[in-house]
Structure formats: structure tokens, C-alpha cells
Write a structure and sequence with these properties.
CATH topology of the largest domain: Beta-Lactamase
CATH superfamily of the largest domain: PAS domain
Radius of gyration: 53 Å
Largest sheet: 5 strands, antiparallel
Strand order of the largest sheet: 2-1-5-4-3
Oligomer: single chain
Bound molecules: adenosine-5'-diphosphate
Structural class: alpha+beta
Number of strands: 12
Helix content: 40-55%
Strand content: 15-25%
Length: 497
């Protein structure tokens, strides 16, 4: 037998395991990107803001000190600036309104006495501060720029020096902050390391979890295939209490039902073949006896042929009953009509009257009119026939059969009681099983097949009813069938009385 597992192999990227692991990875990749960008950007912004505040206030202090001078000259500016603290700034420039550099902190006399670079002789691009910041400051705006790169924060601020509403010059400061830059860089590095660890753990965990989940799905798939190949005893071991465990539980329940159905089917087939084999064997034996006995007494031959006839009749009855059961199993319920149960019972009792007479049994009827149910007439006749026939069959000569049809609230009840042999308490639940007989010899002698009551039960259930068997007081048995009473819809021509 070719195995289905190869044929049904799932392509790598279509497999649940890969999809599951990938979805994990995608989610974590997004989280990691966020983790690596947001804190860095946020702290960068924070540092920019603090730099802007500190640089602007530094520039403002210097601008207000220079404002006092009214008009700016290189010497005066140098004097004032030398008095001020440069506060770790890399460069301070003071220009006149034309952008000419009046003071440059990088070109002041060094402590070791080295002379300053020669201002006036320098080329104009060195004498004029042609920075964007300075130009904007001379136009009257406060400017601040900050940039982070190569582990360093480079920030510049420029501000006009205003005296009586006139711009008399500008101040430009430059700060290069390596300490904060290094701090931000190490934060970035730390985040990168953490992300790497998280990514690694996620990869391992997602592989592990997806493997675990898909292993359970694979086990379920395997179990389905095994059961599909006919091994109905196979069960799954539910692990945990999650959805997969529920699935395994449901699968086991389904397989239980399948196994039961399969067992019932097998038993039915074997019982049916056994039932058919017995009369066939008798027929063969009787025919062989006639053939092999020379000059058989004609009366005996007639006897044997008569027996062959009754065995053939039994075969016919069994096959008819089997066919009826198969029809009940496989065919849909025919169109249901409103049927008067009392009328059907009346007709059935009339049909069985000769049988009752022959058995010396009296049939007493109590049939209330207007007991309507939704059913098919054939099915209802079959139910009545099997029950009344049994009540006559399993009775004593001189015994009685009581049939009653009446309404009980929203139900129509059909009762068939008798004063017959009765059914032992322990057999009561089993009498509706296929081929079950309480007294095999009596059933066979009465021409029973052991299928009559199964047909009754299946037919009743098909029409939404129920049937019970119980002992009748003081003797015999009582079968009760209940159907929902038919109530005509408003405006419909009803048969209700
Ligand atoms: P059968 O064809 O043998 O009558 P049924 O399915 O109709 O098969 O009934 C099953 C068994 O139940 C019978 O063999 C008989 O032993 C028992 N049984 C059915 N009806 C009665 C009854 N009215 N009184 C006593 N026993 C009954």
C-alpha cells in the first residue's frame, strides 16, 4: 500500500513550522529596529536641546557683555573676552556688522608667549567670518546648529550684538563635545549587543516552539492517516490543556465513535451472514437427504419439501428485514404526511386478526380518534405491525393483546401490551438490538428474525419519536411509542378535534 506521507509532504516555505518561526522573527526584527533607533534618536534630541539652551545662554552672556562697549574694536573686544570664561568652548568669534573678525579665541596669544597670527595680513577669507550662522546673526536672528557624527557632538550658536536696536556685530561660538558623543556611542553599542542577544534567543526559541507545535500537528496528522487506513484502535495522548490537547481529545472521541460504528457494522455483517447460513444449510441438508435416499416415502418427501419451503420463507423474511434496515440506514426519510395513528392501527389489527385467531389470542382496542402525527403511512404501519405481531407471537393461547392510541399533552402515544411470556428485566434494554432474541428457539419457531424491534426503533427515531419496552402488570410486556402530536398551523384545515 503506498504511504500517503510522501505524497502529502508540505513544501518547506508552506510548512506551518517555517511560517510560525518566520512570523516570530519578523515581529522581533521590528521590535529590535525600534529598540535600536528610538532610544538613540530620543537621547540625541535631548542632548541637542540641552546644547541649544546652554550654547544660546553662553552666547547671550557674551553678547550682553559686548553690548556695553557701544561700538566694537578688536582691542576692546579682546579685553572684554579675556575677562569672560570661555567655558570649554572650542572657538569664539566676534565680528563687526560686516562680518570682519574682531576676536577669534583660537588666535589669541598663547600662554607660552607665542605671538598671535597676523590678523591684518591674513587673506580676506581668514579675516572675515563667512559662516552661515554669522550671516544670519548679522541679519538679526539667533542661530543654533548641532550635529552628531564620529562619536562627537559639534554645536554652533550665533547671535547678533545689538546696541540701541542696531546690530553692531555678531558673536559665534563652536563647541565640540566628545564626552557626550562617547556616551551616546556606548549607548548605541550596548543596544546593539542587547539586540543581538535578543535576536539569538528569539531564533532559538521560535525554532524550538514552532518545532514543538508542529510536532504535535504532525502526530495528529499521522494519527488521522493511521485511522484512515483502518486501524481504529489508534489513540492520541493529549498533552496539556491547550487547543492542541482539545483537538487530540476530539480526535479520540471521533475515533471512539468510528470504532463503535465499525464494530456494530462488522457484528451486523457476521450476524446477518450467520442468520442466512442457517436456513441455507437446512435447505441443502433436506435437499441432499431427498436426493440421496432411494425410494423415499412420498409422505416424507412432502414433509422435507414443506420444510424446504418454510426455510425459504424464513430466508425471504430475513432478507426483507435486512433490506428494510438498510433502507432505514441509507435512504432519506420520505415525504411526511399527517397520518391518523388510530386508523393505521385499526387497519393493522384487522390485517393481523387471522394470525391472532390462529394463535387463540384476543385483540382489545382502545383507539382514540384524531391522534394525528407527521409520518409516512408505510412506516407507521410497519411499526404497528411488528409490535402487534410480536404481542401475538409471544403470547399464550387464550391470551390477550391490548392496543391503545391516545393523546398525552403534546404527544401521541401508541401502546401495545400483552399477557404473553414477558421479557426478563435484564433483556429489556437489549431487545431493540439487531438479531437479539430472548428465547431463540421460540423466536425461530414463531418465524422470527430478531430484526423486527430494531426496525421499529430505527423507524420511530427517523420520525423524531421514541420507543420503550417494559414489563406489564401483572404479566406480559408493554411497548410504548411516542410521537410529537401534529398541530395544524393557523388557517390550515386541521384535523384536530
Ligand atoms: P423476532 O423476529 O425474533 O420477533 P424482534 O426484534 O421482533 O425479533 O424481537 C426481539 C426479541 O424480543 C424476540 O425474539 C423476543 O424474544 C422478544 N420479544 C419481542 N416482543 C415481545 C413480546 N411482546 N413479548 C415477549 N417477548 C418479546
Amino acid at each position: 500500500m503506498p504511504t500517503t506521507s510522501k505524497k502529502n509532504k508540505v513544501p518547506f516555505f508552506a510548512s506551518l513550522q517555517v511560517k510560525y518561526a518566520l512570523s516570530y522573527l519578523v515581529i522581533f526584527a521590528v521590535v529590535l529596529v525600534l529598540l535600536n533607533t528610538y532610544p538613540v534618536v530620543a537621547s540625541q534630541d535631548l542632548l541637542f536641546a540641552s546644547k541649544r539652551d546652554s550654547l544660546k545662554s553662553q552666547a547671550a552672556v557674551m553678547a550682553s557683555a559686548l553690548m556695553e562697549l557701544e561700538s566694537l574694536s578688536a582691542e576692546q573686544v579682546a579685553r572684554v573676552m579675556n575677562m569672560l570664561d570661555s567655558m570649554g568652548l572650542k572657538r569664539i568669534l566676534v565680528t563687526d556688522p560686516a562680518g570682519l573678525i574682531l576676536y577669534d579665541s583660537t588666535k589669541q596669544p598663547q600662554e607660552d608667549g607665542e605671538p598671535p597670527p597676523e590678523g591684518d595680513k591674513a587673506p580676506p577669507e581668514y579675516r572675515y567670518a563667512l559662516y552661515q550662522e554669522v550671516v544670519s546673526a548679522l541679519r538679526g536672528s539667533d542661530v543654533f546648529y548641532s550635529r552628531y557624527g564620529d562619536r562627537v557632538f559639534t554645536s554652533t550658536a550665533a547671535m547678533p550684538i545689538v546696541y540701541r536696536g542696531m546690530v553692531i556685530g555678531s558673536i559665534y561660538i563652536l563647541e565640540v563635545d566628545q564626552a557626550q558623543g562617547e556616551l551616546l556611542y556606548s549607548l548605541q553599542q550596548n543596544l546593539r549587543t542587547i539586540s543581538l542577544v535578543i535576536a539569538l534567543v528569539t531564533l532559538i526559541m521560535s525554532t524550538f516552539f514552532s518545532k514543538m507545535l508542529t510536532a504535535r500537528i504532525a502526530a495528529l496528522l499521522k494519527a488521522i492517516r493511521i485511522v484512515g487506513e483502518g486501524e481504529y484502535g489508534h489513540r492520541l495522548q493529549p498533552v496539556g490543556r491547550d487547543e492542541m490537547a482539545q483537538l487530540a481529545g476530539e480526535f479520540n472521541q471521533l475515533t471512539d465513535r468510528l470504532q463503535t460504528t465499525e464494530e456494530v457494522r462488522r457484528r451486523f455483517v457476521s450476524d446477518a451472514s450467520h442468520e442466512l447460513k442457517t436456513p441455507l444449510a437446512s435447505i441443502r441438508l433436506l435437499a441432499d437427504s431427498i436426493l440421496q435416499t432411494d425410494e423415499m416415502d412420498p409422505a416424507m418427501v412432502r414433509d422435507f419439501v414443506g420444510d424446504i419451503g418454510s426455510e425459504a420463507e424464513r430466508l425471504t423474511r430475513i432478507t426483507e428485514h435486512l433490506l428494510a434496515l438498510t433502507r432505514l440506514d441509507s435512504l432519506p426519510v420520505g415525504t411526511e404526511h399527517v397520518v391518523d395513528v388510530s386508523q393505521v392501527m385499526e387497519r393493522t389489527a384487522a390485517r393481523l386478526q387471522p394470525v391472532a385467531d390462529a394463535a387463540g389470542v384476543t385483540v382489545e382496542k382502545n383507539l382514540k380518534p384524531g391522534c394525528m402525527v407527521l409520518c409516512t403511512e408505510d412506516d407507521l404501519s410497519q411499526i404497528c405491525f411488528n409490535l402487534v405481531e410480536n404481542a401475538i407471537k409471544y403470547n399464550y393461547s387464550g391470551g390477550k393483546v391490548f392496543v391503545a392510541v391516545y393523546r398525552d399533552r403534546d404527544q401521541i402515544l401508541l401502546e401495545v401490551g400483552d399477557t404473553g411470556v414477558g421479557i426478563p428485566e435484564e433483556d429489556l434494554p437489549k431487545v431493540f438490538n439487531r438479531f437479539y432474541r430472548v428465547d431463540k428457539a421460540r423466536s425461530r419457531a414463531a418465524g422470527g428474525t430478531g430484526l423486527g424491534l430494531s426496525i421499529v426503533r430505527d423507524t420511530v427515531r427517523r420520525h423524531g419519536g421514541w420507543v420503550t419496552a417494559r414489563p406489564r402488570n401483572p404479566e406480559g410486556s408493554l411497548f410504548t411509542v411516542g410521537f410529537l402530536r401534529y398541530v395544524p398551523e393557523q388557517g390550515e384545515k386541521g384535523a384536530e378535534q
